[in-house]
Fold this sequence. Notes:
The relative contact order is 0.19. Mean pLDDT is 79; it is low at 180-184 and 188-194. The chain is of the alpha+beta class. Helices cover 26% and strands 30% of the residues.
Amino acid sequence: MDVERTPRLLIDAPGRRWLLLILLAILAAGYFGVFAVFITASRDFIDARRDRAALRFSTLHPVSVPDRILFGSKRREDGLLGAGWHFAEADGSWSGRNGGGLFIALRPCACDIDLTFNLGVFTSKQTAENGLEIVVNDKSLGHIARTVADAWNPVRITVPESIAASGELHIVLQVDRAKLAFSRRLGEGPEDTRCQVGRR
């Protein structure tokens, strides 16, 4: 009587070890690939969620011109801070990334808008100069060079009426070099003003 036998894998013991090693290497490569995609995509997801929340908050709390916006751990205006900022501390909020955004919804104003920021840009002995670019609604409004001597001076820009007329400002403060946690801190300065919105 013929009994059908289950076919065996015709690979000798050393060959099976190599096959197992190759399969484990493929599995590890796949795992690290998925992990890299997850890390990248999750950061984008978190940034997008923070931007949506800040846009929604700004829409519910429009700013009249002139006004001052103060950032700090006990201030509701921190809701205006989008992607790129750490949670606020008592003296403001800080970012260790190159770009940090904030959203400001404006009540109607047929005028140019002056914005003044009290902020610090990271400088040190190794980074004696650093630049700050201000982008509003995807348009660059200027690049400011900062040194150790003036890293904490207020930053003033004018938003033309053609941009301000939209009623919603998405402002991105972008440094050339983000080195340490305190690359850019919004909220510190000689005055109590964190961001001042004025009519030009």
